[in-house]
Amino acid sequence: MRKIKQKLYIALFIITALVLLAIYGYRIEPNLFVVTRHQLNPEIVSNHASLKIVQVSDLHLKKFSDRAQKIAEQVNQLQPDIVVFTGDSIDRAEQIGGYDRFLSLLDRQTAKYAILGNWEYKSRADLALLKQIYTTYNCQLLVNESVLYKQGDRNLLITGIDDLVSNPDLIKSLQNINPNPNHLLLAHSPANLDDFSKDELQKLAEYKPQYMLTGHTHGGQISFFGFAPIRPPRSGDYVSGWYQINSLSLYVSRGLGISVLPMRIGAVPEIGYFEWFLK
């Protein structure tokens, strides 16, 4: 009889733990977000202030909400020089108005750059309208394009690559562009790096970008001590955090939203904050 009671207590404990974990995964963690802070080129001694970059990735905005407003407020509080949106900003084409409202809350004077993710394509969002909305809020949509951001007598070359579900083209992105000692790549999926052609790899070796910011994986959404059993297609072998690929430092953001499975466990949503000491 005692053994039966022990087994019942163990079963009850396991069931209770699973229920609490499910509640946490569905109701609590998806609504959290943290700011992760990173220093780029910290070895450089400079009298110049660092360039402050905030990364907003995988927002997956389904509708405007109090959480979206809090995210916008946090971005403003960080007082960045640049905000970059690394794809999957919206989840449904009909909610593009909610994303318009989100962008309207950000400091209009702050320079912003965006790329497309797979969900902008999957949701069949009106990309012309999306580009127009970005332009309204001082944001340039980069689709296989590069732009030079100037800070005093120094500058940063930003290259935005199209998503893997479309037509990413690094060579086109750098056409008629001079190499720059400060060069940032933006791509939605980290697997873009594994998909470069031989010619594109040669172009990488020529231009030598130092950093690449990506998202897409959501950190697996469900992660057990860094192990993510399920990740979106085209994630490659990447989960989240920093990876060193030859001379290129790759950062994979856990992003802010959820997709397909409406829960997060062990992959707390994040806003990335980067201080770049320009050469």
From TrEMBL:
GO MF annotation terms: metal ion binding; UDP-2,3-diacylglucosamine hydrolase activity
Example GO biological process: lipid A biosynthetic process
Domain Calcineurin-like phosphoesterase: 51-219
InterPro entries (alphabetical): Calcineurin-like_PHP, Metallo-depent_PP-like, Metallophosphoesterase_sf
Family annotation (CDD domains): MPP_YkuE_C
The entry's keywords: Hydrolase, Metal-binding
Signal peptide extent: none
Protein name per UniProt: Metallophosphoesterase
